[in-house]
Amino acid sequence: MTSEKLANIIFKDITKTPQDYINQYKKRALKENAHVTRYAPSPTGFQHIGGIFAALVSERMASLSDGVFFLRIEDTDQKREVEGAIKDTIDTMHKYGIDFSEGQETDTDYKGNYGPYKQSERKEIYQTFAKDLIRQGKAYPCFATPEELEALRNSQIEQKITPGYYGEYATYRNLNPEEAIKKIEEGIPYIIRLKSQGKGERINFVDLIKGETSFPENNQDIVIIKQDGLPTYHFAHAVDDALMGTTLVTRGEEWLSSLPIHIELFKILELKRPEYAHIPTIMKLEGKSKRKLSKRKDAESAVTYYDEEGYPIVCVIEYLLNIINSNFETWREENKDKDYHEFQVALNKMSKSGALFDIVKLDDVSREIISRMSGDEMFALYIEWAKIYDPQMYELAIKNEAGLKKFFSIDKNTAKPRKDFAKWSEVKEKIVYLFDEFFDKETNIELPKGVTLEQAKEIIKEYQKIYVHSHNSQEEWFNHLKEFAINIGYCANKKEFKNNTEKYKGMIQDVAGAVRVALTHRTNTPDLFVIMQILGEQKVLERFTKFINK
Predict the structure, then answer these.
(1) Phi and psi of 80, rounded to 5°?
(2) In this predicted model, what pLDDT tens digit does every residue of 309-319 receive, in sequence order?
(3) 21, exposed or middle or buried, with CB in 10 Å at 0-12, 13-18, 19+?
């Protein structure tokens, strides 16, 4: 009865019981083996690539099993909350095609029958469970001051004893309830701690990624309710995942050390525990060693990096799927036209150690995907990016829509489509010659190997006289160019040229190269015939004249 009295004094406004909430949050009606997963960020900053990675794993496991994927905001540490972080999470996930079945939708609204989905709005629920633990003698108020806890820790370290608040070192663990009530009435600050039942024995556990593992059971009297009445992460996690029917928790491997605490919490609360899968930390190769991808050091850690650089969202997602399961690359090679959602993610095929993040590999994946896009699709995605990040190119692209679509369509639907672009920020450098606004200001002119500027000018001077713009095909145009080149002393046969170099001015490719340079200032471009069609006859002839006069 004394413990009952203590519980009622600490939580005098709590009238419900845990069973009331268990009855309120009904068991989900889902098919067998369907996963209920969640993404549960703290709103202490804006989203990073690791968050996308973690959320993608959870979303795929739920979707592929016809389950439920929900968003829960773990905002119990309100001093560290960053304004706008919740909206950023919701918007970012939606942008990357990671949509939630239920959960928080805005800062204030949610959808679903298991809410609220913000932990700060579930305070009464946590206190109900904490009150019940105090009533049973499984939790207690702790009046230790920060100074006392620091002194205890220093003493334990000095004596080479495992630091913490447990067993004989938990001063208030066995405080008589009447004495606790007296301290509360005197206004002495306190928190609520779990009275751990752990003896330090080893626990065997199966993680769905790491496999079989073993660790000492928890024996620490962890804090479950803070001085402000809100729960700690550990306590809220156990209560919420049980009531919300979470069946699978996928989270970073840095939480693996917390597993003994969570196992004990579910046991003491007599709640059903979900399965766990601890995903590998995203790593970066630095020299010959790996290190954790850093928010401070690495630009690619921020989601905004991919927006600014112009990586199509599908490219980032497919690259992350490569990290999640290495066999995705083979699957994609064998299923070029399938949507990535059809790929069967398998937790037991994930890396058990750090997942290496490689920008070069991302570029390769992105080039492959962009090469399979139609010219129209590329144009639409490019102007969407340029409108925000390169307004000048956006305006030029809109004015030259037909030409740019034609350029993006070069060599599409062939056995070996061009792979010129990994991201939209690379487009400008490779298309500026299409626009006089940039072309006329260029001072650097590349020349074909072995061809001087004067020789190139002489070729163009003669070619301008016989230039025909109305050829119906690339083949027809090239045959005309070939005939012209032979007539002015260039060889069409490599072997012939090699054996009789003195008879010829050069090879036909020197002539084609001169035409390319005159029109683009570059020695390497996509199909020159298409570029001439995009420029139009008038502009082609104007550029020939400008080149001759250089």
Answers:
(1) -95, 0
(2) 999 999 999 99
(3) middle
